[in-house]
Design a protein that fits this description.
Largest sheet: 6 strands, mixed
Number of helices: 7
CATH class of the largest domain: Alpha Beta
Pfam families: Ins134_P3_kin
Order of helices and strands: HEEEHEEHEEEHEHHEEH
Cofactor: Mg(2+)
Domain Inositol 1,3,4-trisphosphate 5/6-kinase ATP-grasp: 14-208
Oligomer: single chain
Mean pLDDT: 88
Distance between the termini: 38 Å
Number of domains: 2
CATH topology of the largest domain: D-amino Acid Aminotransferase, Chain A, domain 1
Subunit structure: Monomer.
EC number: 2.7.1.159
Strand content: 25-35%
Shape: globular
Strand order of the largest sheet: 1-2-11-10-7-8
Length: 222
């Protein structure tokens, strides 16, 4: 699903949207260090479960700081290059034609000193849960500023078309030190909407639009 974002090559005066370099690992943890080296990925790496089954474990992220620790990870998983983003991500909810966005706290930035002095795998359960809302936090404006709405609407429209989905959400980050460089780090189809303030009205409007669209088609064909 993320590859569809990369294929879009979405860039205009509102900003550029890309995905972090990533690698899918399906088996044999001992082969991970060599696979990462061959793919040219740069540490640290975020490890995400490949399978989503609704369990707590499928929401767990891990941050691997060194080559040796990579073999301690548990496939199947996806490895993504970590991009510093000020510890804030944007959850973009697509509900039919509607695009809504909220801020959530995320993994903290990693500086060069931490990368040199840390080793091993650090695990983070449910990083961007509803309890981690950053909408009312006192944040630096360079971190807290929402992505431009025209950019989000273009991204939502193109992904609706490519994925064939009307209900999904996008986890997006802004690269620290930039204003218009964004990365989509995850896409969730039919996500839980309880994290979205006022979701009842958004969802009701979406269902009504489906009924109205079906009614109009019937009139046109009668």
């Amino acid at each position: 699903m993320l590859q569809d974002v990369a294929d879009l090559d979405l860039a205009d005066w509102n900003g550029k949207v890309d995905i972090p370099r990533q690698l899918v690992i399906t088996k044999d943890p001992s082969s991970i260090p060599a696979a990462v080296t061959e793919a040219g990925l740069t540490l640290p790496l975020v490890a995400k479960p490949l399978l989503v089954d609704g369990s707590e474990k499928c929401h767990e992220l891990a941050l691997a700081y060194d080559q040796f620790s990579l073999s301690k990870l548990e496939p199947p998983l996806v490895l993504q290059e970590f991009v510093n983003h000020g510890g804030v991500l944007f959850k973009v909810y697509i509900v039919g034609e509607s695009v809504r966005v909220v801020r959530r706290f995320s993994l903290p930035d990693v500086n060069k000193s931490e990368l040199l002095n840390n080793s091993g795998v650090y695990r983070f359960p449910r990083v961007s849960s509803a309890a981690a809302s950053a909408d009312d936090a006192d944040l630096d404006t360079s971190v807290a500023e929402l992505p431009p709405r025209p950019l989000l609407e273009s991204l939502g429209k193109e992904l609706r078309r490519r994925l064939g989905l009307r209900l999904f959400n996008i986890d997006m980050i802004r690269e620290r030190g930039t204003r218009d460089r964004f990365y989509v780090i995850d896409i969730n189809y039919f996500p839980g909407y309880g994290k979205l303030p006022g979701y009842e009205h958004v969802f009701t409007d979406f269902l009504l639009s489906l009924v109205q669209s079906k009614y109009k088609r019937r009139l046109a064909n009668s």
